[in-house]
Amino acid sequence: MILQYKDIPVFYEDEGKGKAIILLHGFLENSTMWTDIKSMLVVNHRVICIDLLGHGKTGCLGYIHSMRMMADAVLAVLSHLEIQRYSVIGHSMGGYVALELAEKQPKQVLGLCLMNSTYEADDDERKTLRKRANKMAKTSYENLVRLSFTNLFSDDSRVLYKKALEDALAQALKTPLQGYLAAQEGMMSRKNKLEFFKTWNAKKLIIIGKKDPVVNGERILNETKETSIVCEQLSLGHMSYIENKKELSYLIKHFVE
Question: Per the database record, which ranges form the AB hydrolase-1 domain (predicted)?
Fold first, then answer.
């Protein structure tokens, strides 16, 4: 389904009945990544998957998509669907957007799961990498997407989950250059949300991959000790919905119920 928002289409899917669960994909992904998880959740819940700005079937709004701008587009869909209270699961960049939703609507968001994601801002090294990638994207976009997306998987995972990786990469390559550049700019400018996340009164879960090349799981485990944030660690990397599908399904089912 399509919602017209600020003269662009925002694509969403709305299935099932019950407590609302919002699923937000990561960078170079779209709502198709949730197919397996959605089929599990939709049995007992109302599940809404939304393509974030510049991804999937949702249009772009300029060349900087801040996480707040993305959250505003999500809220436009939720308002259209008259959803008042909900839980959110965000993968990677989707987690950054989910944190913005929680800050904007702290009482309406009942729970938040950061899946292979973090409350941290980009450090200087990560910002440098993003700037370099954006420069390269303008001349060699397809090669850059192939390389950066494949590098999210360990050597073993590239072999074990070859078909799933190829399918996910095919979706990543559908992301327009403008969407890529705008999301990178938006992720670079986001703020650290640890203090908010620690003090916010709701159900909070972080799912960490031990071999995640993007998220510093060890630091998260140390920073969230003796807080109300629950951390669960899975054995593999950043793409837990492919690499740790069974364990992830169990954690998410437990989280929403």
Answer: 20-241
